[in-house]
Amino acid sequence: MRDQEAESRTDGARPSEGTAVKQITRVRIDPMSLADIPRVRDIEQEAFAVPWPKDAYRAEIEENQVACYIVARDDEDRIAGFAGMWIIFDEAHVTTIAVERGRRGQRIGERLMLALIDRSLERGARWMTLEVRPSNAVALALYRKFGFRDVALRKRYYSDNGEDAVVMWSGNLRETESQGCLEAARREFGS
Fold first, then answer.
1. Does 143 qualify as catalytic in the annotation?
2. % residues pLDDT > 70 (the chain)
3. 149-154 vs 127-132, strand pairing mode
4. Which among 60, 58, 65 is positioned nearest to 37, based on CA atoms?
5. Active-site position among 143, 157, 177, 183
6. Most buried by CB count within 10 Å: which residue of 125, 145, 147, 174?
7. What does each C-alpha distance from 29 to 38, 77, 82 come to in angstroms?
């Protein structure tokens, strides 16, 4: 999976003195449409060393029946982030998640992750998996907040620099522990 570095602060730490605190942005989560692709690609190009091929999102939206791609829109209807996954039988595989550079640290990544989990449950998934760079401490913290655990390492997974990938799996999303974690996240966002 592709996850950008320094997407959002999830460790609960306070910014150092003199550092501006970013306001938490309220966003609406919508299905990604073909009209959204140019803005998604702009965010993708600033977030990832190796963007997907030009027609990848169009193919995911129009042709991939197991795909689910979403965008986070702010109050001005501007796309601030996006995410996607494939749902196959009872497993959801997160394929990408990114937030606009100037919007990171506003918990938009958390909103996107919660929306992916909710949509995976709606489609019958019991488990979720993803890959993440071991160097991406912010993303690792985000996924762990949602109950994902490290289960394996894929050697030289990332083509841009040969970095390994940490393979993470959620617990059973339908069990009490996972549901409690999700309900707490929903309460935080008032959803």
1. yes
2. 86
3. unpaired
4. 58
5. 143
6. 125
7. 17, 11, 9
